[in-house]
Amino acid sequence: NTGNVATIFYSWLYDFGYIGVGVLAAVVSVIGEICYKIAKQRSGFQIMKLVYSYIGALIALSFFSNRFFENLNVNFVYMIVFWIVLKCILFRREKNK
After folding, report:
1. What gap in Å lies between CA 90 and CA 97, rounded to an integer?
2. Residue-wise pLDDT tens for the chain (97 aa)?
3. What are the domain boundaries of the chain?
4. How far apart are CA 31 and CA 55, in angstroms?
């Protein structure tokens, strides 16, 4: 009995059974690992580092809630586009004339 706190595994177990827990945990791991590898390769301010930090926070908080895949939605895509626009505005380089 976990009271009002359910981990990410509760909904996976309820929906997909024990096999689904293993498969979906592997999917989350692969997503996190790919984001980490891409973010680690590039230096400086990159959008992928922000994406990895968002994914990392979702993974860390997934032990207290079941909202990992629910937070990867259209709003996440809007947030990435907003970050790209901010990067273009804040970090643009002036051309020498």
Report:
1. 20
2. 555 555 677 777 788 888 988 898 899 889 889 988 888 887 766 788 888 888 888 888 777 766 777 777 788 889 889 988 888 888 776 655 5
3. 8-90
4. 8
